[in-house]
Write a structure and sequence with these properties.
The protein has 300 residues and is an alpha+beta fold. It is built from seven helices and ten strands.
């Protein structure tokens, strides 16, 4: 047997041995594994956010939160506590006015379709009207069931009276009259006075024969829930500001008919022009239309 006489490499302690798994491969696998774990957690186990402050809620969640505050107030009657929670929302203005706006918005978006939603709106109205505020939710709410039942009973024809035989013996105990249950009625807000700020006519092909009314306070902020009356001949109609949320709290409109004169007024305000608003012919872009009007009422 012949021996291999070729020189062999000398192994020292400082010479690393070549292995199957290197440090770079290990680091790369660790990074990929962490990325896959974080991605899996995000998709199948998202983090739940907790301990959020009320002012951090989204706008639609703030409206529902204010209704919860109003419901709590209806049970406890603690006005100071309810105001503190409304202020914690950081409304940037009058918190009760914000509550009235939220009640108006939710009332026009489906809260009136359930008994719990109606109860929440009544609680909100009771809270802000007791502090002298007003909104359009009062006009949106249906009448109380007790009042509707009383009206139905009054509308029914009286039954034919039948003679009742007199008892032969005195009853041992006379029936006491039922004591009526007192009902809570929220305090009505103080009446407001308005005056005409401006009346202007305009011609628009997309909005012919339209009366646009804007109701604002002395700072120019819209006031929802204000009733405006349109009169023509021996007829009249009532429309309310703030019911078209996309046009703002101050906005209300009334559609006129051709060849009819109208007048507009409000409670506590004089007639808009002192004369009639007529649907005359106007022209814009060489096309015929009917004249429209823009009336602004300001709170005095």
């Amino acid at each position: 047997m012949q021996r291999d006489l070729r020189p062999q490499p000398i192994k020292t302690a400082s010479t690393p041995e070549t292995g199957y798994f290197s440090a770079w491969v290990f680091a790369l696998c660790l990074i990929v594994g962490m990325a896959l774990g974080i991605g899996f957690t995000r998709v199948y186990g998202p983090w739940q956010r907790g301990n959020a402050e009320p002012w951090q809620l989204r706008p639609e969640e703030r409206d529902h939160y204010m209704m919860a505050i109003a419901l709590e107030y209806s049970h406890s009657g603690d006005t100071a506590k309810a105001l503190d929670k409304l202020i914690a929302l950081r409304p940037g203005g009058d918190p009760l006015a914000q509550l009235a706006e939220a009640a108006c918005a939710l009332g026009s978006r489906g809260y009136l379709g359930s008994e719990s939603g109606i109860r929440a709106l009544r609680s909100a109205v009771a809270l802000y009207t007791a502090q002298g505020r007003a909104g359009c939710a009062e006009q949106l709410l249906p009448p109380l069931a007790t009042e509707a039942a009383a009206e139905v009973q009054l509308a029914q024809p009286p039954e034919t009276q039948r003679s009742t035989p007199l008892p032969t013996k005195r009853p041992l105990q006379e029936a006491l009259p039922a004591t009526p249950t007192p009902r809570y009625r929220p305090a009505l807000p103080a009446p407001r006075n308005f005056e005409v700020l401006s009346v202007r006519s305009f011609c628009d092909l997309t909005r012919p024969a339209l009366i646009e009314v804007f109701v604002v306070d002395y700072l120019g902020r819209g006031i929802p829930g204000q009733r405006i009356r349109a009169r023509w001949g021996d007829r009249e109609d009532i429309f309310v500001s703030g019911l078209k949320a996309e046009r703002g709290d101050a906005y209300a409109d009334f559609q006129m008919e051709e060849n009819i004169d109208y007048s507009i007024d409000m409670a506590g305000a004089d007639d808009a022009l002192g004369t009639r608003l007529s649907t005359d012919t106007c022209y814009t872009e060489n096309r015929r239309s009917l004249k429209s009007y823009r009336v602004t009422f300001v709170e005095r």
